[in-house]
């Protein structure tokens, strides 16, 4: 069973795997422009789609195939990296690039040379600790067999420290409930 922490003040939720304290989900929502409850914004993980997916076996891997040609984006955190995956990325690796846009929004921009893909990625974890994006921390990987483009951002010492403090707060709160 995963550990969940809710904050009603900001209407946010995060979920951790208890054995490793790995962050599995972080999402939040607030009022939209009309003052109604807005849609969930996912920082880690992705919304669960209840529609049946088509699965295809490729070698020893079973992957979901989206009949739509648009990439499907998801994000996750590993112990050393923040990463975003775009499945259904059909062009060769040489076609993709990622750049750091040095502006107030602290944005990574992923694009393709053939102008079929343009995606802005913001990193709220860095904004929370007031850290600027670092060009040398960004890397791209591509798995042509699975048609998956992965954008990696190496966590800085400040992010690792903030994560450790957050884990300790969650562990202490969880132990008080037991």
Automatic annotation (TrEMBL):
Transmembrane helix recorded as keyword: no
Family annotation (InterPro entries): DPCD
Cell cycle among keywords: no
Keywords from the named record: Coiled coil
Pfam families noted in UniProt: DPCD
Coiled-coil regions, chain positions: 146-173
Family as reported in the entry's similarity comment: Belongs to the DPCD family.
Name listed for the protein in its UniProt record: Protein DPCD
Organism this protein belongs to: Leptocylindrus danicus
